[in-house]
Amino acid sequence: MISEKENTRISKFLSLVLRHQPETIGIQLDEHGWVPVGILLKQMAAHNHRISKEILDHVVATNSKKRFAYNDDESKIRANQGHSVEVDLNYTPLQPPAILYHGTAERALESIFKTGLEKRQRHHVHLSMDVNTALAVGSRYGKPVLLMVAAGDMYTDGYSFYMSDNNVWLTDHVPVKYLKRKED
User: Is 138 or 22 the better-scoring residue by pLDDT?
Assistant: First the structure.
């Protein structure tokens, strides 16, 4: 259908407009992050990013991180998490597993062990149940380091956790006392 390179290019552009800068192509996300598919495609075409609904379907279905989702009748699309714009994704608080993982770059450790994991410009801190996924995330920013998060203890102490539609665990902040570097 489309090359892997083209799939990646479209996915990155969708991440930009559905997570961070919808104004780039003149769209508005509703309060829950949704935008009508027809409007998205029309505005993409108007800004020299012309794709068909079939290609959009392919990008959504094949995205390895499951970053995007359609509503039930596939009339709307949104990013599953990672927004820097204000949206309410209607997550329900859930009890997390005892341990979750966070991948980061080695150069970030000093700051992390001073302030904990902070959401910064995003809505939440992203955590994983899977070591390999966390390491892959960390490797995007430099030499990867794996942190273990005592999520069960945090939950017991009153912190809220959510799970995105693509199985990423989310929380607002991870204080230092719940963090430990996982040694190889």
Answer: 22
